[in-house]
Amino acid sequence: MTDQPWLVVGLGNPGPTYAGNRHNVGHMVLDVLAGRSGSTFSAHKARAAVAEARLGVLPGGAPGPRVILAKPSTYMNTSGGPVAGLAQYFGIDPDHVVVVHDEVDIPFGDVKLKSGGGEGGHNGLRDITKALGTRDYLRVRAGVGRPPGRMDTADFVLKNFSGAEAKELPFLLDDAADAVEMVLTEGLLAAQGKFHTKA
Fold this sequence. Notes:
Number of helices: 6
Protein name: Peptidyl-tRNA hydrolase
Binding site for tRNA: 18, 75, 77, 123
Shape: globular
InterPro entries: Pept_tRNA_hydro (IPR001328), Pept_tRNA_hydro_CS (IPR018171), Pept_tRNA_hydro_sf (IPR036416)
EC number: 3.1.1.29
Number of strands: 7
Largest sheet: 7 strands, mixed
Structural class: alpha/beta
Helix content: 25-40%
């Protein structure tokens, strides 16, 4: 089915306490995408804030594909239920699901993309894999860097960005949003070619 929309999910934790955390970079990227497309989020029964939009421009100049933007309103570790619920509600197959999330194994500011593969200890991804019954969905991974010294990874991702990082954060969010748009309009390989070779 080629006319099915895409489901783009930004991971994070709900509420103002977590809003600025590294772990919430997925939510932040979705806010950028909604801003670009002039769409606004509203509550959906699948336990998520959802906005419908068209993203990007296709190579021939036509408007990009129809997209469901979603920020689960559950905690990160239980993101799977909302993602599977929305996929079912909108009739979207896993290969049309894009998950935007923070990644400690990538230097701060870098963006990488992949389809399938392991979850790298990311509990949000693990729960989505379980709920969808497959690992074969797309991931846009926003690098937040490794914790300093002996800081626990879980503590690190639940802290806000440092002052220096906060100045660079808009560039990371823009790059990740660009990566999402490119995946939808030109495909995963083209997006990897651009973002994996960025100096």
